[in-house]
Amino acid sequence: MTNTGNTFVVATFSDPEALLRGVKALRAEDFRVWDVYAPYPIHGLDDAMGVRRSRLPWITFLAGLGAMTGALALQFYTNIWDWSLNVGGKPDNSTLAFVPVTFELTVLIGGLSTVAAFLFRTRLFPGKTERLAAEGITDDKFALVLRKRTADVARAMKILEVSGAETIEQKAMES
Known about the structure:
It is built from five helices and four strands; from the N terminus they run E-H-E-H-H-H-E-H-E. By secondary structure, it is α+β, with helices and mostly antiparallel strands. The model has no long low-confidence stretch (mean pLDDT about 85).
């Protein structure tokens, strides 16, 4: 099954203030901004776009909790039930000795699962071709992308023009 792509309205801006004005004006008119491309982070852009907080910290927390539970369970099992050894007269249940391994596994598994979830969610993988909405967005241009709705295209283009967009065009891109 091939993806034929969708039609989008792409507006480019030369400065971040104009981009923020465009995003806020579109959101005030009940448009949903599909994406914004910028060469560097812009303070307040997520709030202006109405982007929700990421759920990625929950993935990290749950994976770390699972790793911690697994590490403690494995160490308790091997040191107490399966192969208990009397080493230097210390007790079998020496929980303080389990702390370094538990900490390291919690951090390792939490970090690796965060990276894996991020790459899976954003559909990034080796060899993927980039899709740039407009020329120069990785250098010095800012782009705002709207999914085309036939009845609202003229109104959206007018709002973007008033907000200070340098160019406004319709493009077919894969979503």
